[in-house]
Amino acid sequence: MRIQLLGQHPQWLAENAARAAALGSYGVDLNCGCPSKVVNGSGGGATLLKDPELIYQGAKAMRAAVPSHLPVTVKVRLGWDSGDKKFEIADAVQQAGASELVVHGRTKAQGYRAEHIDWQAIGEIRRRLTIPVVANGEIWDWQSAQTCMAVSGCDAVMIGRGALNIPNLSRVVKYNEPRMPWPEVVALLQKYTRLEKQGDTGLYHVARIKQWLGYLRKEYVRGDCALSVDSCVKPFVRDCKGDSGHQNLISTASRKCAGQALSLPGAGIRKSS
Q1: Cα dihedral sign for 76, 81, 87, 91?
Q2: In the predicted model, is pLDDT for residue 204 greater than 90?
Q3: How many CB atoms lie within 10 A of CB 166?
Q4: What's the pLDDT tens digit per position in 15-59?
Q5: Which residues are involved in binding FMN (predicted)?
Q6: Of 68, 226, 243, 255, which is most buried with the most CB atoms under 10 A?
Q7: How far is Cα 35 from Cα 77, in angstroms, rounded to an integer?
Q8: pLDDT at 240
Q9: Are 64 and 14 in contact, with CB atoms under 8 Å apart?
């Protein structure tokens, strides 16, 4: 596992990369692709795509701070509002000494809209560089991964939000296994709830469960699950109970979310990754 860093100040990136390595991370990654308004507002994530020189300085500082046997990788998009700088961005990553480049096949402006995915552009970058290039974006199953690699020429793909839709997506993509059965997903959610409860106030992890159920509804429709709201939510309410005084909020929020996640018409329609 590699820790991924967000930021724009080379010195701070270097310091945190060194800390991550010292704590046992198998390498570190620089995020230059996150389109979040909060992240971009602080100058991190996809904002760095506007300034390839800053990407170069950040990745170079991280490379110098991390032992040479550990990989330093960078994840980017094709650009901010266009792909005009994609080669400049890719060159900056390689010249900084990065071990690998992951390319999400859309610009920041294109967000996660499926119709804009451009695996061919990833292939153009792959053919330009000598370091490994990994393709990312719209990887939902084994077939989409195979098509992506064929179009881009990449030997590997990175999965993203699709792993929240299908928890075993990595094995689906690599081995063409069937998706995880819904009862196993519920067990996984319950395990996550118990682990999160150990260090949480009772609010944060319930919000995370709501968010996760929102992703799961894109893949698991009610007919697949054959579960009522009560059978899905009651275990979470039980596991979340504590002395925080938020029990009523937990029950209300969880029930509302599960009703939306498992009962909405068209809930099985997949969306962009």
Answers
A1: negative
A2: no
A3: 24
A4: 999 999 999 999 999 999 999 999 999 999 999 999 999 999 999
A5: 4, 75, 104, 160-161
A6: 255
A7: 9
A8: 55
A9: yes
Q: Which residues contact 105 (CB under 8 A, 6 or more apart)?
A: 77, 78, 117, 118, 119, 121, 122, 135, 136, 137, 138, 152
* Residues assigned a catalytic role: 34
d(CA 193, CA 37): 28
Q: Where are the beta strands (DSSP E) in the chain?
A: 3-5, 28-32, 72-77, 100-104, 133-136, 157-158
Quick check: 64 pLDDT over 60? yes
Which amino acid does the sequence have at 79?
Answer: G
Residues annotated within the binding site are 4, 75, 104, 160-161
Q: What is 237-250 written as a DSSP string?
A: HHHH-SSSS-HHHH
Question: Could you read off the pLDDT of 162-176 as tens digits, one per residue?
Answer: 999 999 999 999 999
Cβ–Cβ under 8 Å, residues 273 and 226:
no
Please say whether the beta carbons of 140 and 162 come within 8 A. Answer: yes
Tens digit of each residue's pLDDT (9 = 90 or more) over 91-124:
999 999 999 999 999 999 999 999 999 999 999 9
Q: Which domains does the chain have, with CATH numbers?
A: 3-158 (3.20.20.70), 182-263 (no CATH)
Confidence of residue 218 (pLDDT cuts 50, 70, 90): confident
* The token pair that represents 178 in the structure block: 């069937």
Which residues does the annotation place in the binding site for FMN?
A: 4, 75, 104, 160-161
